[in-house]
Amino acid sequence: MRRIAAPLALLLASTACTTMETTPVSTAVGPDRMVSPILTSPEAVDTLTYAQPQVARVTHVALDLALDFDSKRVGGTAELTVLAAPGAQEIVLDSNGLQIEQVTDGAGRALAYTMGEPDPRGGKGAPLTITLDGAETLRIAYRAPEDASALQWLSPEQTKGGVHPFLFSQGQAILNRTWIPTQDSPGIRQTWEARITAPEPLDVVMSGVRQGEPESLGNGRRAFTFVMDKPVPPYLIAIAAGDIDFKAIGPRTGVWAEPATLDRAWREVNDTEEMVVAAEELYGEYRWGRYDMIVLPPAFPYGGMENPVMTFLTPTFIAGDRSNNGLVAHELAHSWSGNLVTNAVWGDSWLNEGVTTYFENRIVEAVYGKQRAEQEAALMFANIKETLAEVGEDAPGTALSTDGGYQLGSAIAYDKGAFFLRTVESVVGRERFDDWLRQWFDNHAFQPATSELFYEDMMANLVQGEAEAQALLLREWIFEPGLPANVAKPDPAAFATVDAAVTAYGATGAIPDAYTQWSSAERQRFLDNIPKQRSADQLATLDRALGLSGTGNNEELFLWLELALANRYQPAVPQVEAFLAEVGRAKFVRPLFQVLWDQGDWGQPIAQRIYADTRGGYHAVTRAGVDAIVGEPAQ
Ligand code: BES
Ligand code: ZN
């Protein structure tokens, strides 16, 4: 086995205690690569991986892959560095549909392997078990399947430029096993490097630092190399390729986008350097070097994805006035919560998303002011209330820490998580809270974490005295459903004017004159709170007076379209159709199909007609969400 400085046992297994020793680290890529510990406490065991990291684990991944846009396939080799316990016979990796051609050791000697039966529930894929036979390096020659759900291959028509194809990946939560053979678990961190070839003139970016200039191969293709020398959970390995250009913002920040989108994108994210500075002032040094972003074509299924050194963004957040930049603050905040300190299991995803949503709000406060931050917090609070009213205060899924349960956009992991930290802040005071959160990031940097670990750390390093412990209700917040009584509610003044306008509109139909001068959060509050049942005349009046269908802000447009469809408002249908043909962001697409579906005889035929055209253009994530509503169309 490869010799390393730290005791093997510590690297292979580290129990969940707050005094956990940190592994001796080095940041070089090479023989002394940084290796993160894993957790072995029962609640840190990931049921969504086949890996048995306490027996043998991957510490480094070296990819050498070719992108083939004609066959929509990625293939090549993955060289894995293995750290195995004494006597370990085999290593188990995750695979979902990978076609393995050969496995050899570092010297080219063939190693035996078996691909197990795929999990019938899908998603988890199948175990790829490789006989080690003393090997410390594994070289896997393979191809990803054509329908690898992490990857979306866009036709030129799905791009702004319309000339070149595009590719992007989305790894979170367990999709990367459809294109990378490794241990795909958030608690098993790996350093990585990659050499990627792509046809000219496409550019390739990854969630690692690009090394030098691309190398021309003389066959119409170029090779790009990338290095991530800090151990990351493998869901954070990401790639995008297309006709893209770069524009710098600050000394370590910049944005990539298609040429036709780049200027608009650059103007929108121009506060990013300032945000990084604000984030560092709050919770310590930004540890990843560069912070770049790529604004993808609108098929991207999420608002944003926190891929290290290269946040992926939907273009649908661009409003022209930076009003949706909470998204950028959010993905940036993940550089601490999520990417530095990572949920060991997806049932604890609030440790990533809730802490990030809190941190996001603090960045928004620092960069855009207290009022905007309070308004955005009030929208989050309303979201929690709405969800609890829907599913019930005691629904088990409303606990922050859930056994295996995992939902995106959930008001629980994100907003209840954020309100938990906000409540703790209000009890102990901002100064003590910020000191504590900063040490949490520092002391657990490049390591996995669990809810139990978070709780123990708060008890050991934050909470002072019995009375404070009682007042905080920490275990209730983390492990019980519902919303604890001590929640630090948003300032009712945040939306006082809007709420009065909502009441007036409900009573007399009076349309607020100031609407167009309001902030986007105010407009969203209004649209979300006016009476849900509207006649066609009332909708036409609202649209005319407030310019709803003409808004350049997609969050507002979405609320308008949702309201219109819920009232079977025919004039909105062509716009819905155009929107759903262009945008693949699940947060917008799924609810629009849902609201159509809920409109029975009126909406279901519309939904089916639209989906027959748009399904092929959606990412697997979005497709799965809509299939569950509309049903999978017959082949
Ligand atoms: N990490 C998430 C996206 C994600 C979550 C992908 C779960 C796959 C599974 C990202 O940081 C996120 O939260 N995006 C939000 C941003 C919003 C809350 C500001 C989104 O895409 O809407
Ligand atoms: Zn997030």
Structure write-up:
By secondary structure, this protein is an alpha+beta fold. It is 36% helix and 19% strand. Strands 1, 2, 4, 7, 10, 12, 13 and 14 form an eight-stranded mixed beta sheet that branches. A five-stranded mixed beta sheet has the order 16-17-18-20-19. A four-stranded antiparallel beta sheet has the order 8-9-15-11, with no helix packed on it. Helix 3 (272-283) packs across helix 4, helix 4 crosses helix 5 and helix 13 packs parallel to helix 15. The longest helix is centred in the middle third of the chain and has 22 residues, at 370-391. Bound molecules: ligand BES and zinc ion. Ligand BES is lined by residues 172-173, 302-306, 326-327, 330-331, 334, 353, 408, 414, 587.
Straight-line N-to-C gap: 51 Å
User: How is the main sheet built?
Assistant: 8 strands, mixed
The helix/strand class is alpha+beta
Instruction: Estimate what percentage of residues fall within beta strands.
Output: 15-25%
Q: List the bound ligands.
A: ligand BES, zinc ion
User: What is the count of β-strands?
Assistant: 22
What value does the Rg take, in angstroms?
Answer: 25 Å
